[in-house]
From TrEMBL:
Pfam families: CoA_transf_3 (PF02515)
Name assigned to this protein: Formyl-CoA transferase
Family matches, as InterPro entries: CoA-transferase_III_domain (IPR050483), CoA-Trfase_fam_III (IPR003673), CoA-Trfase_III_dom3_sf (IPR044855), CoA-Trfase_III_dom_1_sf (IPR023606)
Keyword presence, Transferase: yes
Keywords attached to this entry: Transferase
Keyword Transferase: yes
Classification lineage: Bacteria, Pseudomonadati, Pseudomonadota, Betaproteobacteria, Burkholderiales
Transmembrane segments: none
Length: 400
């Protein structure tokens, strides 16, 4: 396992209690854990977080688990039982941050809402990720990332014109919400440093998507224009598209004024590069079909590698469309430690994504593998003040 050069990380000393499952809450906790936070993940006895069983499994456990739960401790608690909820309260009293992504109201029904927990721990920061947020007319609706992507405006644009909108290919709505949640937590920590007071960070999945939708709303507000799907093109910015080669596709972004001239020279179309009507983006957008046709005619006669080498020499941004194999074999990924090996509890060595972002003085790292279910229950409960006899009784009654 690759360890960080800084054993601590910038978030050393922060205690995080993770009550979420699957993607949104756990991804936020994973990000904090990567940078040194002590994350205690609460899972139901027996099955644990459903992500343990998602996608491809090795010996019954998802290899995705090795990414999402690295650097965390696993404690099993049956939150349906009062004794388990009392343990959560004890752990929350010592925590800096609590992360949950249940449907609004669930934590309150358990007696674990922010108002209750902050009475004994006023500095507690609670990150709450849900489909529609903690307030509003939709708050009680079940909300998953795919629905949020649709409501946030993204799904309408991920299509070829006139064809069915498709998903991005990963759970982007959940991940965007997680990252917004981490930003909110860090801002709340800054506020607590000055005031000593915690607060709630309320992140709605659809709002996290909506926050990344660029000019979508102001264009409608100012001009009544509804942005429509454009396939691989970048509407209103030209040229920027995917172009066919003999053996695949390349993405070319020649939409800067000087870049466009270099691109046209590289493909032997100085007539377009020197055309005064195409000197700015406005003119190029008006003739984008002509420009795309010229680029496509040049790329079709060449292989992907030849195209990329020619455009790199011309200082034109371009790239191939990577598969997992391309990523695993790319030297740049390796040089920047974006691919790291970890060893699972049962001996499998698997490569996982590296740590993002890169900090020069206090980098994050992988300090421990993802835990097996309940691996840290006894140790964490002993730290919380429970005796071995009490822990044994809780296990006998199925609380842990």
């Amino acid at each position: 396992m690759t360890m960080t050069t800084s054993a601590a990380g910038p978030l050393q000393g922060l205690k995080v209690l993770e009550l979420g499952q699957l993607i949104a809450g756990p991804f936020a906790a994973k990000t904090l854990a990567d940078f040194g936070a002590d994350v205690i993940k609460i899972e139901p006895p027996g099955s644990g977080d459903p992500l343990r069983q998602w996608r491809l499994l090795h010996n019954g456990t998802s290899v995705w688990w090795q990414v999402q739960s690295r650097n965390k401790k696993s404690v099993t608690l049956d939150l349906r039982q009062p004794e388990a909820r009392e343990i959560v309260r004890r752990l929350a009293d010592e925590a800096d941050i609590l992360i949950e992504n249940f449907k609004p109201g669930v934590m309150e029904n358990w007696g674990l809402g922010y108002e209750a927990l902050s009475r004994s721990n006023p500095g507690l920061i609670m990150l709450r990720i849900s489909g529609y947020g903690q307030t509003g007319p939709y708050k009680d609706r079940p909300g998953f990332g795919v629905v949020a992507e649709a409501m946030g405006g993204l799904r309408h644009l991920t299509a070829e014109p006139g064809r069915v909108p498709v998903r991005v290919g990963v759970s982007i709505g959940d991940t965007l919400a997680s990252l917004h949640g981490v930003i909110g937590v860090l801002m709340a920590l800054h506020h607590r440093h000055r005031t000593g007071r915690g607060q709630v960070v309320d992140v709605a999945l659809y709002e996290a998507v909506f926050n990344c939708m660029e000019s979508l709303l102001p264009e409608y507000s100012a001009f009544g224009v509804v942005r429509e799907p454009a396939g691989s093109a970048l509407p209103g910015i030209a040229p920027s598209n995917a172009y066919p080669c003999r053996d695949g596709w390349v993405l070319v972004a020649g939409n800067g004024d000087s870049i466009f001239k270099r691109l046209m020279h590289a493909i032997g179309r100085d007539d377009l590069g020197q055309d005064p009507q195409l000197a700015t983006n406005v003119g190029r957008v008006a003739r984008v079909e002509e420009i795309d046709a010229a680029i496509g005619a040049w790329t079709r006669e060449r292989g992907v590698t030849e195209v990329l080498e020619a455009l790199a020499a011309a200082q034109v941004p371009a790239g191939r469309i990577y598969t997992a194999r391309d990523i695993a074999e790319d030297p740049h990924y390796r040089a920047r430690d974006m691919i790291l090996p970890v060893r699972t509890h049962d001996g499998l060595t698997v490569e996982v994504p590296g740590i993002v972002p890169r900090l020069s003085e206090t980098p994050g790292g992988i300090r421990r593998r993802a835990p097996v279910l309940g691996e840290d229950t006894d140790a964490v409960l002993k730290e919380a003040g429970l005796t071995e006899a009490q822990i044994a009784q809780l296990r006998e009654r199925g609380v842990i």
